[in-house]
Fold each of these.
Amino acid sequence: MTLQQLTYFLAAAEHGSFSAAAESLFMAQPSVSEQIRRLEAELGVPLFVRVGRGLRLTEAGRLFLPHAERTVEAAREAAESVQEVREITGGTVAFGTFGSAHHYLLVSLLQDFRTQYPNVRVRAIGQNSAEVADAVRDGELEAGLIALPVDDRGLDVRPAMVEEVLYVSAEPERLREPMTIERLASAPLILYDARFGHDDPMRRQLRERAQAAGVIVEPLIEVEYVTAALELTARGLGDTVSSRQMIRARGLARRLAGIGFDPPLHDTFAFITRRNAHLSPATREFIRLAERRVEALRREL
């Protein structure tokens, strides 16, 4: 059974004759009737009966018709999806990421995309996840890869990867046992994303734990970038929270170590788009490549 045979069958059913079907398909009538005959032979039942100078579907033909329609339509949609990607020749992808993505994910992703689509401009905004969520919701960005939790009103959220968050210090004696929220409240803490404060997803998680335990977590030092927090920690000015992947990406594994939280604390990363939005072909392809990179990272972690 071939798509060609199904197409000829549908044309004959619509037009009521082989000759009219052949004319609509710009084919010779013998070719159309021969392909339908082969289809009937494969199915083992007749699909048409002759009525006067025309054709009428048999009971088997009527049962077969909706299945043939769905199959041909699915094949058409599949071909169109590939056509869209093949024809990505310009435009701009506007994509947002969590703030530290450029240290171990974004550069490789951009290389992947530019290698395949050199004529498409890319605008990759590495902001705080809360700000990326607002930009996607407002239509300033088409999509993003962010850390949860965020305000998800008007957004489709698709979790993609979970990464453990560690308490990080240059002092081994502070890492003898898992960190609790109670002990964190009295730790010499350095936190990043100072501009976003309590809207930052990591700070939201810490604040919720602190509220449940009846303590207050306040940093001694606040900076904008996680890289600055890690460097200050490496110099012994305090401790911070980060992932093992980030410590490794910054080349600080010899100067810093980390211990998990009790209970464990995680960053959950998710793809977001505006709810019911129609994404451009270039953005859909950028997300596909991002999903592949995230999956590779997830396996590594």
Note: The CA atoms of residues 39 and 258 lie 66 Å apart.
Amino acid sequence: MKDALDPVRFFDEASERHVTPCGVGGMVWRVWGEGATLVLLHGGHGSWTHWIRVIGELARRYRVVAPDLPGLGESAKPPEPYSAESLAAIVAQGLDIVTGGEPPFQIVGFSFGGLIGGHVARLLPARVRKLVLVGAGGLGLPRGPREEMWRWHGIEDPQRRLAAHRRNLEILMIHDPAKVDDLAVRLQAENATRARLKSRPIAYTDTLRRALASTEVPLAGIWGERDATVGSDLAEFEALLRRLRPNLEFRSVAGAGHWAAYEAPDLFLEALHSVLEQRSTAETRGSSAAG
């Protein structure tokens, strides 16, 4: 009998698993494919499964490296007090171990993962060839007004609890309610239940903006056109990033909400391939000088 979580089991079993230090435990990493390394950092209250609908396609072109961030998914909770900087240090250390000091890699960071990715790029400027922010927090811009999230803690009836998770996906993550399928609900329920890291207080600051201002790592941005964390003024987010990187590559995913990689995977992949394959000005100059 087919189960909604079958794709998770498939990619989990197909992965190469690594564990690196994190607090008194370990940070769990999964790897698929071969080629240039592409690091995928998931969002807050999430896990590697935030990328479940794009891993297969990306693994045809890249060596895809997807961790569970500290305190989320299967990874151990980081030492307290934690900050964006301390979390990024754990991730950077893990990346050095998992990638074995190979040539520079690209990072794609979704939501809270984009915030952490910015701090990793600050710590490893020579290793990060490009940082792609996907609906990233930590930019210090006003959040769009939205309905309060439903409280699911304490709901004993399993179906009512899943209904609360479904509603939260509709409020925050996925714009079109018809795209909130059983897999999305099961992932949301599992990820939220396992989350031990309070990411929201960090995501509501301008810590990513400050990290980006202190590094020159090439930058790209992909946002869902209807991202609930933005509201109606997506142009303000693009303008901020463009002030930091005048040569910014920015794409919006038509009709998609915050979790664009799940809601509109084909459109998201089209945008992602476009920005990953676009060479930065610095790379172009380097090639010209070498020639």
Note: The radius of gyration is 18 Å.
Amino acid sequence: MFKQLKLGLDPAKKTLWLHAASLGEYEQGVPVLEALRASYPHHQILLTFFSPSGYTLKNKSPLAHCVVYLPLDSLKNAMKFVSIAKPVAAFFVKYEVWPNYLLALDQAQVPSILFSGIFRPSQIYFRWYGGFMKTSLRRFSKIFVQDAASLELLSKEGIRSVALTGDTRFDRVYALSKNPKPLPTKISDIITAFINDKPCLVGGSVWPEDLEVLGGAFEENTKRIKFILAPHKIDVKHLATLLASMPSALQGKTVILSKTNALKASGASILIVDAIGLLNSIYPLAQIAYVGGGFKTGLHNTLEAAVFSIPLAIGPEYSKFKEAADLVALGGISVLIKPTDANAFLAKAMEDSHKNVVKEIQREYIKKQLGSTDKIMESMNDFDI
């Protein structure tokens, strides 16, 4: 990693460093990366990941000049990393609080910025045993938070360099919705033949637990709705478990993207997308959406679907996800707990009156949340970078 870092950076140029845990945080950071490149065209961008899900897909990101894994958060690694990279500012996305890296940046007098942060009293920083982590929070030069509750919580803890700027994910999904990346021709042909001009539900990041609730409703609606499912995991074992969680009648009507063609797909009821990175290009084709993870594993990104202003459903475990909780409260997302809820949701999602109400709620909510990136960049004038 250190060798790659030395080879990838030009020591004659100033470096702006952004760290994202994985692919989701990278997408959240893209608006800031784009803004940094536009505002500081003569600087170079260093992008780091902790998870392979981010690095594997984005190690050639056009937004960065150098992309590497972040070494483990030991003091030795942190000091060495900062001394080689020599960033003039460091940016961390949402939950990325690395004590030793923040100490190394502090000692090198490098501004450190956390953006799209969100905090709850249950987090380690606010527990009796979390003093070490709270100290790390205090080392940030600036923390930009998503909501007023986070701002109030940090203020109560005496952390003052905080500003309410919202969540950059809204800027990201809105930009993607206005200019969606086209699907590869072969995949587009298969999906077009599969949908065959019928209403389509896209299920993003689904797990077997989701299909245990959705399966019966899918089976009852195969004559009028097509179902595209993008599992969160696409290894052979997980796909087999996913198929087994469906009603047996549906298993014979299911095709897998990498193993089918347009002709076979046209006769199927369910298409499983066994590829990473296509979901943002598939959501625009949907008239209905479901976002997985709300039963057991942790809810995935509802904004990617909500930005298209379509009936949207999730599982019941959503309270830790601000945008989902907001949209549920407003009536812009339906919550499914049992199979009969799924049947009711699909029936409602086909009604024009419900579609129109949801469209207006989602559009207005997202519109009000835009502009986080601009607010963050305005504050960069406070730092000498």
Note: The radius of gyration is 22 Å.
